[in-house]
């Protein structure tokens, strides 16, 4: 249906942002709005410039036969640093310190206005490796993993610490914790396929045992681990159960109180 450009721009932006990484044929968009492909291409260029100016990402156009326009999360350095610095200040408050060197952050990860932005940032960091699925663990990792998966346009697979009948058949792996205990982790057999490219997302890392357990799950499914993203990582212990990961924020409990800073 033909309409004013403003309305058309808003509707195209809505399609692109609600379905990141999904390609929308320029021809189909032109037919939907009863305009020429040239007009739609001009609209996409305007949207691309606006999203880049906001620091959210950009719109790419695949010129191939089956291609189209799609949104790519690409959070700017300036937007990223302002947002993460704000979170670091909030998390550094004294009343957030919990026993055993922990810190309270559930209100951050269960607040959509924060997790939406965090998901865009993590998706920006790992977009180029093209994961097929995002993996996380229950419970606090789920909102962060879901927002990242949504921004990448891929499904989320959740590792559980207790098997549920509603999850269907599951694979179980055992992993050692920092204290020397052994825990079990379950993954439904229908969530990951052999050969899938898996991005692991963890909410908090101290010794890295949970992330290490998820890496074992990836290997058990004969899938490929392509990256590990972490919301908040403790500086101590320095030696983690995994060697390579990317953290957004760092937690330093070595002095009085807690100091959270942007990971350099």
Automatic annotation (TrEMBL):
Where is the signal peptide, in residue numbers?
A: none
Record InterPro entries:
PRTase-like, PRTase_dom, Pur/Pyrimidine_PRTase, PuR_N, WH-like_DNA-bd_sf, WH_DNA-bd_sf
Q: Which residues form a coiled coil?
A: none
Q: Where is the Phosphoribosyltransferase domain?
A: 125-242
Residue ranges occupied by any Bacterial purine repressor N-terminal domain in the UniProt entry: 4-73
For this UniProt entry, the molecular function terms from Gene Ontology, in alphabetical order, are: DNA binding; glycosyltransferase activity
GO terms in the biological process aspect are: regulation of DNA-templated transcription
Q: Sorted alphabetically, which Pfam families does this protein's record hold? A: Pribosyltran, PuR_N
Q: Which UniProt keywords apply?
A: Glycosyltransferase, Transferase
Keyword Glycosyltransferase applies: yes
Q: What is this protein called?
A: Phosphoribosyltransferase
Q: Which organism is it from?
A: Dethiosulfovibrio peptidovorans DSM 11002
């Amino acid at each position: 249906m033909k309409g004013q450009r403003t309305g058309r721009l808003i509707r195209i932006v809505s399609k692109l942002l609600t379905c990141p990484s999904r390609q929308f044929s320029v021809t189909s968009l032109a037919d939907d709005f009863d305009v020429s492909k040239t007009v739609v291409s001009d609209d996409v260029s305007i949207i691309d410039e606006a999203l880049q100016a906001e620091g959210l990402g950009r719109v790419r156009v695949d010129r191939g036969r089956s291609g189209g326009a799609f949104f790519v999360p690409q959070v700017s350095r300036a937007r990223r640093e302002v947002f993460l610095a704000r979170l670091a200040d909030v998390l550094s408050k004294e009343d957030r310190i919990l026993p055993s060197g922990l810190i309270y952050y559930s209100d951050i990860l269960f607040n959509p206005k924060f997790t939406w932005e965090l998901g865009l940032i993590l998706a920006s960091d790992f977009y180029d490796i093209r994961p097929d699925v995002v993996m996380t663990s229950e419970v606090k990792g789920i909102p962060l993993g879901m927002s990242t998966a949504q921004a990448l346009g891929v499904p989320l697979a959740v590792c559980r610490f207790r098997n549920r009948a509603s999850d269907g058949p599951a694979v179980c792996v055992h992993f050692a914790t920092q204290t020397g205990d052994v825990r079990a982790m379950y993954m439904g057999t229908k969530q990951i396929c052999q050969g899938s490219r898996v991005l692991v997302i963890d909410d908090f890392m101290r010794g890295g045992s949970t992330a290490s357990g998820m890496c074992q799950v990836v290997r058990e499914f004969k899938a490929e681990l392509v990256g590990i993203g972490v919301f908040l990582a403790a500086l101590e212990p320095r030696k983690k159960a995994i060697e390579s990961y990317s953290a957004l924020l760092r937690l330093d409990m070595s002095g009085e109180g807690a100091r959270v800073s942007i990971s350099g």
